[in-house]
Every structure is written in structure tokens, then in C-alpha cells.
């Protein structure tokens, strides 16, 4: 007989969490704040709130990533140009691509990283 109980998989209220992040000291001090939503052996998911006219310095990830703007408007600067991400847009980057992230207005985005974990 099938299980009639709802799944116990985690769900997240992203707008509420983003608002909580905007109240933190790192957000006020640095212009952005993040919270890990998922930390699994093969996956990382973070929510990042960033103030308008703030930039997260150039960096790269050792794994593939996606950036999903959930509010506001962010720009991702990559070696061959700039990718505009208004709310609702999703960008996927291959591993190792140097990039920085700039918010044109107060924004929030979900960062998803493939993760190898410890082998």
C-alpha cells in the first residue's frame, strides 16, 4: 500500500529568508549576506541577498554552478561579456569560469553548486 504521508523533503520560503539576510550585520557591513540551504555530499545551495550597487569580487568555482535571480536584477561579468539576470532568469556556468556578480538594485539569488564531496 503506498505511503499517504507527505514527503519529508526540505522546502524553503526564499523571500522570507532573503528578508532575514537583509537584517544581518554582514549585509549592512559588506553589502551582501548568504545562507546555506542545502549541504549534501554532491550539492550546495545558497541564498544570497545583495544590496544594489554592490559587487562580489571576481572568483571561480571548481564545479558547475547556476545563478537564479529571484528578486531585483544582477549582472554576472564573465571573460567574454556581461550576462543580465533580472528576477526569474537562470544562468548556468561551467566550472572554472572566472566571474563576478553585481547587483543593480537590491536583489536576491539562489546559487547552486555541483559538489564532489570528499572521496
Itemize the secondary structure elements and their pairings.
Layout lengths: L13 H8 L3 H6 L1 E9 L2 E8 L3 E6 L5 E7 L1 E6 L2 E6 L3 E4 L5 E5 L3 E8 L5
Antiparallel strand pairs: 1-2, 2-9, 3-8, 4-7, 4-9, 5-6, 5-8
Share of residues in helices: 10-25%
Strand proportion:
over 45%
First-to-last CA distance: 38 Å
Give the integer mean of the pLDDT values.
93
CATH domain fold name: Jelly Rolls
Shape: globular
Count of spatially separate domains: 1
Structural class: mainly beta
Low-confidence spans: none
Strand order of the largest sheet: 1-2-9-4-7
Compute the number of helices. Answer: 2
Radius of gyration: 16 Å
Descriptive overview:
It is a single chain. With 119 residues, the protein is mainly beta. It has one domain (14-114): Jelly Rolls. The protein is 12% helix and 50% strand. It has helices spanning 14-21, 25-30, and strands at 32-40, 43-50, 54-59, 65-71, 73-78, 81-86, 90-93, 99-103, 107-114. A five-stranded antiparallel β-sheet has the order 1-2-9-4-7. The protein has a four-stranded antiparallel β-sheet with strand order 3-8-5-6, with no helix packed on it. The protein starts with 13 loop residues before the first helix and ends in a 5-residue tail after the last strand.
Could you list some keywords that capture this structure?
five-stranded antiparallel beta sheet; four-stranded antiparallel beta sheet; mainly beta; 119 residues; Jelly Rolls
Quick recap:
With 119 residues, the protein is mainly beta. The protein contains 2 helices and 9 strands.
